[in-house]
Design goal:
The complex is a heterodimer of chains A (115) and B (219).
Chain A lengths: L1 E2 L2 H10 L5 E8 L4 H4 L7 E9 L1 E7 L5 E7 L2 E8 L1 E3 L5 E7 L5 E8 L4
Antiparallel strand pairs in A: 1-7, 2-3, 2-9, 4-5, 5-6, 7-8, 8-9
Chain B lengths: L4 E6 L4 H15 L3 E6 L20 H16 L3 E4 L12 H15 L3 E5 L7 H16 L7 E5 L5 H5 L4 E4 L4 H10 L7 H4 L6 H8 L1 E6 L4
Parallel strand pairs in B: 1-2, 1-4, 2-3, 4-5
Antiparallel strand pairs in B: 5-7, 6-7
Helix pairs in contact in B: 1-6, 2-6, 3-4
Classes of the chains: A mainly beta (115), B alpha/beta (219).
Chain lengths: 115, 219
């Protein structure tokens, strides 16, 4: 993965406006959060391959942490803390936020095909 | 004790590396046939390498290759990837999970099974995997039950279970173990696992030279 290139991500978001897309949305503290630090709790969620369609989407922030908001007919998709993206597959937009140890904390992925 | 057929049942690629890779290498050198049933591909792992060379989409394939390399380092002859999904073992239909594992036990006919100790293994997938193994083996006639030895590492383990009753000296198999750990290169670069500096030989032996297990008791 590479450090997010804001303009290219915005371009990809724009090009997929008003289309049915598969979304993967995830946030995780890691299953060992409480094991390593009793003040923390393990918390996570993920949602994979729901079909969504947005009318307007924006990537915001000046780095290293970016936010993405996607406006849908009946609600929003929102993600904060994104740091890296993968541009290798033109049919997928893979965005993720990793912590200082390289662990995934948050992700937002869009695709024309199911993940 | 001698075991010709050993079945290892763990949920994630890399679960074998720290806990029992040396023990398995030792048994294999003594002539054992080891089948490793790995329930998932660790698709929801958080580590992507430093800097991240995997992503959520490529991680399963990356981890499959790492798992295969780890098995080669240990000498495991038979790797089964069961196709369940990371983080979902406790939610899987027990009928499906139990039948899959039961079929495997009937096929392999192991005299020894390694898994996680249910309730003392921190990750919900670990606990659910161990619970399934215990549930299935419990249903077998007492005379047909393989020995079940469990890894356990939650904070309550020693308080509740005492000291592990099985301790395996794996000093001669340290290289297999280190190679197994290093095979999982997307996962084990984290500071809390490997330390920030290369460990000295003495420290390696002290930290990794022994592997310990709890024999599960049905009484």
């Amino acid at each position: 993965m590479q450090v997010i290139h804001k303009e290219e991500v915005q371009h990809r978001i724009d090009s997929w406006q008003d289309q049915d897309l598969y979304v993967h949305l995830e946030m995780t503290m890691g299953a060992y959060a409480a094991h390593f630090d009793s003040n923390k709790q393990p918390a996570a969620n993920f949602l994979t391959n729901a079909v969504v369609r947005y009318s307007h989407g924006t990537i915001a922030g000046d780095g290293p942490f970016y936010r993405v908001g996607l406006k849908m007919d009946h609600g929003w998709i929102y993600t904060e803390g994104l740091t890296e993206w993968d541009e290798t597959d033109a049919d997928q937009l893979i965005l993720a936020g990793h912590d200082a140890q390289g662990k995934l904390v948050v992700s937002l992925q869009l695709s024309r095909e199911p993940f | 004790m001698n075991h010709d057929k050993i079945l290892v049942i763990l949920p994630h690629p890399d679960d074998e590396a720290f806990g029992l890779s040396g023990t398995l290498a030792k048994y294999i050198e003594q002539g054992a046939q080891v089948t490793y049933a790995c329930l998932t591909l660790g698709e929801r792992g958080r580590n992507m390498g430093i800097p991240p060379f995997a992503n959520r989409v490529t991680l399963p394939a990356v981890r499959q290759k790492e798992l295969e390399a780890s098995c080669r380092a240990i000498g495991i002859q038979d790797l089964r990837m069961l196709g369940f999904h990371d983080k979902t073992i406790e939610f899987e239909d027990p009928k499906v999970l139990d039948q899959t594992l039961l079929d495997l036990i009937h096929e392999i006919q192991p005299t020894l099974i390694f898994t996680f100790y249910p309730g003392y293994s921190v990750h919900p997938d670990h606990d659910a995997t161990g619970a399934a193994v215990v549930r299935i083996v419990e249903r077998l006639a007492a005379s047909e039950r393989p020995i079940v030895q469990c890894l356990a590492f939650s904070k309550d383990t020693k308080k509740d279970l005492g000291n592990p009753d099985v301790s395996v000296d794996i000093k001669e198999f340290l290289q297999n173990k280190l190679q197994s750990i290093r095979a999982h290169r997307s996962q084990f670069q984290a500071a809390e696992l490997m330390g920030k500096e290369e460990m000295a030989e003495a420290e390696l032996l002290q930290r990794f030279g022994t592997e310990k297990f709890y024999t599960y008791s049905w009484s």
